[in-house]
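Record type: monomer structure entry
Structure origin: computed from sequence
Chain ID: A
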Amino acid sequence: MSINKPQHARLLFIDEKIRSSSYPNAASLSKEYEVSGRTITRDIEYMRDSLGAPIEYDKVKKGFYYSEANFFLPAIDIKESDFFAICITEKALKQYENTPLYDKLSSVFSKLKEHLPDSIRINTTWIDTKYTFMHESFTHIDPAIWETISNSLRLKKQLNISHRKAESAEAQSRIVEPYHIVNYRGEWYLIAMCRKRNEVVRFGMSRIKEATILKTPYEIPEDFEFNSFIGPSFGIMTEDHEHNVKIKFGPKIAPYVTERHWHNDQIITEEKDGSVILSFNTNSLFEVKRWILSWGAGAEALSPKELVDFIREDVREMSGV
């Protein structure tokens, strides 16, 4: 059932009256809006059945009321160009389809499109064939574990998890206090205070095999801020101290390097031979090393010496020397 403009305005009127806690009924609403009682009754049924409005009738006060105070009637007024942007965003969200978050967001987008005014109803099927988002590999997360972790963060209740480190075959039990959830390159990470280590650490959520909410409440420190926690990292991993990194890229690779933003602290210096030197401060040499190796012979680590040695050792092992 599609909604037309006159009905949409009428629904907004009914919603306003019910929300005012005046307990309106079909007779009072029809009289004030100057329509038939049958029209109001159909509108009430539509709001209940199609819009999910929790409308109940109070027999004592002889009027309608919302049984859920936080319900809001869909009322959208956007331009067609805005709606187009929404549709593109919906496609981009497919990178999160490894979590229950994707199903919920897809449902929200469907409701948005369903309840838009007729003036911006457009055929969006062509978007599927004209726009594509290619995503990196991603991990799979148990929906039940995702929900448990999300509820723990929302309710601020301690969590008992069974987590396996990437390099370990066995999982370990930890009591944690969730602070933040972050997505990085297809993996979701839980940032939490680990009571066993008494420090804030990160846990790959795909490697959490069990999760149970405990009764013990906790508070997230007021001074905790994710960007401060991650610092000048070059990815999700961090180390205890910072390094000044310098990487030289040959002339063939230089255009790809200069056209992108790689780090908030980056400085790019162009050399006479067409090569460039990328410099930045970071607290994560491990991920910088992997990134440099991905460029092959086109990239050369100049500093710090620790990074240069890491790469030389990896190359030596790969060559079998």
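Annotation 1: The chain has four domains: 5-66, 80-130, 143-230, 243-319.
Annotation 2: The first strand starts at residue 55 and ends at 58.
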